[in-house]
Amino acid sequence: MATKAELTHFFQTDFPQADFLIDSVGEKSATIRKKINQGHLRPGGTVSGPVLMELADAALYVTILSEIGLVAHAVTTNLNINFLRKPSAEKDITAKCTLIKLGKVLAIGEVSIYSGDSPEPVAHAVGTYSIPPVK
């Protein structure tokens, strides 16, 4: 298992391009947040779909690593996302992930993405990760 501090350090050193904050990790779950800026927006004043997909994928990765440890080569094999509502261009987005299954070679999780403090999700994703064999 990896702690919030260990995960934060891992992403800062091994994935410096990761521009999200880890809010919490726990029992097969994690919450991460991304500060939205002008570069994340699409015409119409909303957060772009690829940004939401990136956050969903990152939330899955953080959640899985919090359970199995810092395994850099765990990779996404599938990600399905449904865009539900227009996220605000002025508010951070938050992704809350819960693992549905954590096996030896596959992990499956679901992610709800929220805009600001709204209780209604703006997107919902389900993803699968391949976990490399232990050597």
TrEMBL record:
Domain Thioesterase: 44-120
Name the record gives this protein: PaaI family thioesterase
SUPFAM superfamilies reported in the protein's UniProt record: Thioesterase/thiol ester dehydrase-isomerase
Pfam families: 4HBT (PF03061)
GO molecular function, one term: thiolester hydrolase activity
InterPro entries tied to this protein: HotDog_dom_sf (IPR029069), Thioestr_dom (IPR006683)
